[in-house]
Specification:
single chain; 13 helices; two-stranded antiparallel sheet; 2 domains; MetI-like fold; mainly alpha
């Protein structure tokens, strides 16, 4: 009772002193300012990219930009971005070919088949993959995965797009698995029990009931995984090489948009040159691509979301 009286007295003293009123007036402004930080940051990024990229697009004709010839440091510089877009898409396709089946299978096991003990043990171990620095993945791809693939695939170069694509897929597995598992766990148990009561097997319940009900979260996890693969930098910089080839041969070296930015900002791009502004043009294209993917993920999530 003594504690209750003391608390009541503190409240009465605060009301008399007007302390609560002052705090109530100040805090909404602080919260609003904190919310505006992300808005101003995004606006600043967009303004910087658009402003500097516009100088590049004004200087280079569109037919030269959307060509397959990229040689920014040659005597006669050429700035075709199609090799970079091609390398980015190829690495992303390889990564998702690894991440989607493995990640989705892991999510199904953790959600529908694993015991509580196994789930508590396996999920943290799997999510450790997400905490490994990407530069470590890059060296792993170059020094471990590539030599193994060279013994299996004849003609595979020391620098190629296959090896970093596979390792990127391994890196994305925790994202696909974790988000997909959360979506499947959100499906009510009554749907599982009803299907089992009608004579469905565990596998039939998983494939015909749980997956369709959780499809919005699963698709969103895949789209976010694609965005993660598109924006990956260090793995492709180390293991994919810097050859600006426009090819669909995954055994060859290719360069992605992020790897081009890393290479060209290492001291070769003089400030104010066309090559310098090409970095912003590539960055703007990358920004637009990831923005579209994120908006698509939100659209899919809203369109196919199930309310329970």
């Amino acid at each position: 009772m003594k504690k209750e009286i003391n608390v009541r007295k503190i409240i009465e003293d605060n009301i008399k002193s007007g302390k609560n009123q002052r705090v109530e007036k100040i805090m909404p402004g602080l919260f609003f300012f904190a919310a505006l930080i992300s808005v101003f940051t995004t606006a600043g990024i967009v303004f910087t990219l658009v402003f500097d990229a516009s100088k590049f697009f004004r200087a280079i004709p569109l037919k030269d930009i959307f060509s397959t010839k990229l040689a920014p440091l040659s005597a006669n510089p050429q700035f075709g971005i199609l090799p970079l877009i091609n390398g980015t898409i190829m690495s992303t396709i390889i990564a998702m070919a690894v991440a989607v089946p493995v990640g989705l299978s892991a999510a199904i096991y953790l959600s529908e088949y694993a015991s509580e003990k196994n789930r508590k043990m396996l999920k943290p171990v799997m999510e450790v993959l997400a905490g490994i620095p990407t530069i470590v993945y890059g060296f792993f791809a170059y020094s471990f995965v590539t030599p193994i693939l060279m013994k299996i695939i004849p003609g595979l170069g020391a620098k190629n797009i296959l090896s970093p694509g596979i390792v990127m897929g391994i890196m994305i597995i925790p994202m696909v698995a974790s988000l997909s598992e959360d979506a499947m766990n959100a499906v009510p148990n009554s749907m599982r029990e009803g299907a089992l009561a009608l004579g469905a097997t565990k596998l039939e319940v998983t494939l015909k009931v749980i997956l369709p009900a959780a499809i919005s979260g699963i698709i969103a996890s895949i789209v976010l995984g694609i965005s993660r693969a598109v924006g990956e930098t260090m793995i492709v910089t180390i293991a994919a090489g810097s050859s600006k080839n426009f090819t669909f041969d995954i055994t060859q070296s290719m360069q992605t948009m992020t790897a081009y930015i890393v290479e060209f900002t290492s001291g070769d791009a003089g400030s104010g040159t066309i090559g310098y502004y090409s970095l912003y043009a590539v960055g703007l294209i990358l920004f637009i691509f990831t923005l579209i993917m994120n908006m698509f993920a939100q659209y899919i999530s809203r369109k196919y979301r199930e309310e329970y």
